[in-house]
Amino acid sequence: MPVHRRSPWSLPDSEVTPPALFRARRRFLKAGAGSLALSAGLASGLGGWVGAARAAVERPGKLAPLEVTGTTHRVDEALTDYEAVTTYNNFYEFGAGKEDPAENAHTLKPRPWTLSVDGLVARPRTFDVADLLATQPLEERIYRLRCVEAWSMVIPWIGFPLAALLDRVEPLGSARYVRFESLIDDERMPPRNRAPISYPYVEGLRLDEARHDLTLLAVGLYGEVLPNQSGAPIRLVVPWKYGFKSIKSVVRISLVEDRPLNTWQALQPSEYGFYANVNPEVDHPRWSQARERRIGEFFRRETLMFNGYGEAVADLYRDLDLTKWY
Amino acid sequence: MVLKRPPEPKWLGARWVPPATVALCLVPLAVLIGQALTGALFPNPIEALVRGLGDWTLRLLLLTLAITPARRLTGWTRLVRLRRTIGLITFAYAVLHVLAYVGLDQAFHLPTLWADITKRAFIILGMVSFAILAVLAATSPKAVVRRLGGRRWRRLHRLIYPAAILGVIHHAMMVRAGWGTAGEHAVILALLLVLRLPKPRLAGVFGGRGGAEG
Ligand code: HEM
Questions:
Q1: A145 lies in a domain?
Q2: Which residues form a coiled coil (chain B) (predicted)?
Q3: Whole-complex ipTM
């Protein structure tokens, strides 16, 4: 599996950063390439702005920077442009269109923020996210993100393993699942922007999935704190599952005995399940999951089982019929 | 109550009206291509192009359907000249929408295309709608109309209603939650369908008498 442990700072100078390349191409196209360049221009304007080369993580300089101990996981593929990562989002509290969250999420007010951890735990606690940032060592992890809508990105997250937080509250032996809940607040998420699904947004994991080393509580991306539209100030990232599992702007985590009913499964059980593991062989009824468009690329690519993290996670599902438990 | 209708403007019969209509209907296409070329459809330009073309196919189809009610309401008979023109441009957008999906989105990847057209209800409905539009486009030249005869031609071209209904359902089915803009399309289509009811029934719907001739 192409997950490596190495520092991004050690990459050779010859590797180009995608944003610069994108801007250069844009300038070239704006300069008015003649009709001969039309087809080449179409290809370039329609995708293909991601450099073939792998880029170092370059801070965009827009939000507060975060210190990390190092890059502990790294998928060996080109990063998705910061601009794309932060303008093409699903965050239904701020609207159903991909561009809506970037436009509307300025009302979120992610600081101060508290995160309650309760349920079947020995020490229920309410964490101040600022304290969490100060006490929890932060790592950078470059993961693929695969949306159930058949598009994908590669994002340099910053965060810490969910397991570290769970350890601090000491789950009881009876706890079998973890339930997550997003903020819902009429002032910070005005109802007029919301897409028509039920709120608060709820997600869930089996306890062993939640404890898995790849399962991250993210507080930043691209070297800085999370932009509001990306789920500030704290969100889940489960890289081998479809993006809707990676719940945003979390306010409550509960350890429970019964499998939580997650929002999308409640809305459309024939299309969205509890597990939502990336699986090219199990189609969504309305589109094939066999291939995906990596944002920034022209041609679709094959979707990988468990989004390419099979070596690390397949064991979790040894006894599960993945066609039935999609 | 009898509404006084504005008289038909003279320019409606002018020679420049059909080409101007074509030009106007092609503006959205020009804008989409311009946006695709300049990177304005960033960050998922192919999706934006497929959807933009689908949206304009449906909007122009609804515009085509609006011509006859508009003529009935205004009494401007020369509006009908534009119906065929707009209908044909609608079909051109449909062709581009399908080509963008087959050629750009799926890059002619046959296994995926095959799976889509055999398994996905929303694609199948789109295809049926597209097939109807193709038949209507093929039977719109004057020579074909003459060969078919007015009555048969008119009956055949009533298929535009199922085409529009299927188009709206095709759109609504791809929306993941609620209706999105498919709701607006559905409302406009419903209104146009009501306006197209034969006059006595239309009068029934509005609880009054039908208007004058139309
Ligand atoms: C062979 C026929 C057709 C195929 C294969 C097809 C395919 C598609 C696809 C793949 C999408 C985009 C789905 C997505 O992005 O998730 C779409 C959207 C759409 N199509 Fe079609 N389509 C067809 C015919 C039609 C026809 C005839 C109409 C109009 C009457 C139409 C109107 C639309 C509309 C309005 C949308 C949604 C645009 C939006 O989201 O803004 N399509 N179609």
A1: yes
A2: none
A3: 0.84
